[in-house]
Structure formats: structure tokens, C-alpha cells
Amino acid sequence: MTHEHRDLPLAPGSQAGPGLFLSFEGGDGVGKTTQIHRLSGLLEAAGVDCLVTREPGGTELGAEIRRLLLHGGEVSARAEALLYAADRAHHVQTRVRPALARGGVVITDRYLDSSVAYQGAARSLGSQEVRDLSLWATQGLLPDLTILLDAEPGIAARRAGERAALDRLEREPSSFHVALREEFLALAAAEPGRFVVIDADRGVEEVAEQVTAAVVRLIRSRTESPGGHVPQADASHSQVPHPTGGAWAALSAFAATYGGREVGR
Ligand SMILES: Nc1ncnc2c1ncn2[C@@H]1O[C@H](COP(=O)(O)OP(=O)(O)OP(=O)(O)O)[C@@H](O)[C@H]1O
Ligand SMILES: [Mg+2]
């Protein structure tokens, strides 16, 4: 498996405005929605303007696309890739960029890494093509931080299986989930500056502490040396806006409150 995409020019979310763009990734049932709910609760309690959204389905159009993708009939591989990209294009243009422009924190439940990892695991389309399609769709917008919740597929499937109905992708065999996990880990290894990998095979509280610590590190990297180190291994550091304004005051307060719980990466 090749991951040449590490050489592509990156465009972290903060280039779309003074906000922060966070994505949660990982296989089905690893705890993405649970952790996003907890993190957004903490951020909102600290007074941070926070948009929680998801892909597919973060917009009205996206909800229709999501229904077609997850609960409709057969979708051929290229049509599937284009539908995810269409959802992403509309989501980024109408929700994500406006929120970043006003200085908010955007937390998305899945983003382009899911498309790349799922296609990579399915072996039907090239990872590079799928990534390029998403970058075209989003005009190059990448998260400032991607939190990969990593767990052994059996555990994730058991958690997911406790819910009533499994959707189309969750009915795939477990060898698919093993390959999917490997794809996600390979993506994280290729972009260590953007990704944080968290062991999701632990209690909700323990995982939440790791998530909070990762976000605190991101905020500190921006507030303590703006324009200097940002968690992004690319040549665009100089374009990262200087964090200013009320949004960053709230983020700094959040980092001060939870910074004491710093846990090793
Ligand atoms: N750390 C954890 N330990 C035990 N159970 C958990 C943990 N995190 C989440 N769960 C439970 O596992 C199930 C799946 O969690 P959740 O819906 O957050 O996962 P998800 O990654 O969003 O799944 P999906 O990809 O299907 O949306 C839920 O019932 C949730 O309560
Ligand atoms: Mg979920």
C-alpha cells in the first residue's frame, strides 16, 4: 500500500480563518460520537464557539446523500466516492468554512481520511485518487488536528452490535475491518503532525482524557508560539493566522483548565 499523499501541499483548517478544525476518525463503533459529545461539552462550558457536525450528512443535502449511501441500494465504487466528495464539498463550503471564519472550533465526526481509509481497505479505488477528489471538493481544506480512535476491530464491532440495526458498511466482514484499521494507522503514520492516535480500547473517561490532552496541546502550540510550531508537517506555517480575539481567550481558558491533566502522547 502506498501513501504518497504525504507530499501533497496541506491546507490546515486555520487557513480558512482564526478557528480550529478538528476531525475524529476510526472504524465503526470505536467511540467517535461519544468522545465528540464529551469534548464539545467541555469546550462549550468554557465558552468556546463550537460546531459539531458529521460526514456524511452534516447538511440538508448531505442528509439525503447519507441516506443514499448508507441505507439505499447498491452504489458502485466511483459513484460512492463522488457522493462522499459531493457531501464533503457542500459541508465544507456551507458549514465548516463559515464557522472557522468566525473563529469557532469545528468538530467533525469523520472527514476525508474516512474516505481514503475505507476505499483503501475496499481496494476498489486508489487512495491517492480518493484523496485528490476530496481535496478538490474542499479546495484543499485539511483539519488542524485529526484524532484517530484506534481499537481492535472485534471490540468495536461488539460495541456497535449492541445497537439495533447495522447499516450497510457495518455488515462488511471482519477482514474488512482489520484492513480498515491498518489503513487508518498508515494514514496517521504518514502525517504524524496532523494525527494523534488514541487507544480507544479503554474506558470512556480514559479516552476522553487523552482527547482533551491532544486538544490542549494544539491550543498551546497556537497560543504560545503562533506562526511557529503548529501540528502540521508542511511549508505553510507562516500562513497560520495569529490567534486573536474572544474565541482564543475562551480556548486559552480551556487549555488552562485542562492542561494540568496532560497525558503523554
Ligand atoms: N470507551 C468505551 N468503552 C465502552 N463502550 C464505549 C466506549 N466508547 C463508546 N462506547 C459505546 O460503544 C458504542 C459505540 O460508540 P459510538 O457511537 O460513540 O461510536 P462511533 O465511533 O461513533 O460509532 P459509528 O462509527 O457507528 O458512528 C456506544 O454504545 C457507546 O456508548
Ligand atoms: Mg458515531
UniProtKB/TrEMBL annotation:
<dbReference type="InterPro" id="IPR018095">
    <property type="entry name" value="Thymidylate_kin_CS"/>
</dbReference>
<comment type="similarity">
    <text>Belongs to the thymidylate kinase family.</text>
</comment>
<dbReference type="InterPro" id="IPR018094">
    <property type="entry name" value="Thymidylate_kinase"/>
</dbReference>
<keyword id="KW-0808">Transferase</keyword>
<comment type="function">
    <text>Phosphorylation of dTMP to form dTDP in both de novo and salvage pathways of dTTP synthesis.</text>
</comment>
<dbReference type="InterPro" id="IPR027417">
    <property type="entry name" value="P-loop_NTPase"/>
</dbReference>
<dbReference type="GO" id="GO:0006235">
    <property type="term" value="P:dTTP biosynthetic process"/>
</dbReference>
<dbReference type="GO" id="GO:0005829">
    <property type="term" value="C:cytosol"/>
</dbReference>
<dbReference type="GO" id="GO:0005524">
    <property type="term" value="F:ATP binding"/>
</dbReference>
<protein>
    <recommendedName>
        <fullName>Thymidylate kinase</fullName>
        <ecNumber>2.7.4.9</ecNumber>
    </recommendedName>
</protein>
<keyword id="KW-0418">Kinase</keyword>
<feature type="domain" description="Thymidylate kinase-like">
    <location>
        <begin position="24"/>
        <end position="210"/>
    </location>
</feature>
<keyword id="KW-0067">ATP-binding</keyword>
<keyword id="KW-0547">Nucleotide-binding</keyword>
<dbReference type="GO" id="GO:0006227">
    <property type="term" value="P:dUDP biosynthetic process"/>
</dbReference>
<dbReference type="GO" id="GO:0006233">
    <property type="term" value="P:dTDP biosynthetic process"/>
</dbReference>
<feature type="binding site">
    <location>
        <begin position="26"/>
        <end position="33"/>
    </location>
    <ligand>
        <name>ATP</name>
    </ligand>
</feature>
<dbReference type="Pfam" id="PF02223">
    <property type="entry name" value="Thymidylate_kin"/>
</dbReference>
<keyword id="KW-0545">Nucleotide biosynthesis</keyword>
<dbReference type="InterPro" id="IPR039430">
    <property type="entry name" value="Thymidylate_kin-like_dom"/>
</dbReference>
<dbReference type="GO" id="GO:0004798">
    <property type="term" value="F:dTMP kinase activity"/>
</dbReference>
